[in-house]
Amino acid sequence: MFRTFHYTITDEQAGQTIGEFLRSCGYSRHILTRLKQTKNGILLDGRPALTNHRLREGEHLSIRLEEAAPSAHIPPVSMELSIVYEDDDILVVNKPADTPIHPSFGNRENTLANGIAWYYQQQEISFVYRCINRLDRDTSGLLIIAKHMLSAAILTDDMKHRRIHRTYLAIVEGKLEHPGTVEAPIGRKEGSILERCVDFERGECAVTHYTPVSYHEKLNLTLLSLRLATGRTHQIRVHMNYLGHPVIGDYLYYPRRDFIKRQALHSWKLEFLHPITKERLTFEAPLPDDMLFIIQ
Hints:
By secondary structure, the protein is an alpha+beta fold.
């Protein structure tokens, strides 16, 4: 896969070196190194140029990103994909439950990565798998896949600085009537590889905002909308359990499975700036079938 970008230098950008200009556009040091090693990776007015060249107004800079080898150790596997959006730079998919996002020991082929690899193999496109936001195996909903190293670098930085806004829907036990915030640090539970817990001594800062959407009186369950201000492992699941309103179906923290056979958690909405065009994007994925009982 390759992608070419073109820039015409403005008066404000003149005086910067090519390296400085590209860094301001989101190119990482790793990408700049790759460009130096790529034939015609950096062209200035059609001729190869070095990153220390100082730019002048009106000069035309062309950048060629090229990736020849697909992700290693991800065998392509045919599977149905729910693609919400795709362009030359990003892919947004609606992941079903019971689907890990990456291969792991003992599970090499039943992952979203395998399906994405197969999708691009059918198009004869060499594709490197770069998943930007992460979801647990049994959490359904929206994920962003970067289609090349530049969009990955920019979106990864956006995730780090909380510029990608994520809203989840969850079904929790009990009645919650008013919006609120859980601000409680999360750390690894002692003696467990997987479990996390609220730990005010050793945990990392974690903040979750929640808003009740609807209440099912007969079942005594509440549908919540939740926004993450931080991104700790199992954050929503741990915070709701700490609040006394655990996510139902959660095999780790509250394995009540009379209504649903997995944790009732869904990545519903993503809001972010497109990494290349800077257009503001908003995507939503409706509640999956196994969570619809809460509004019926």
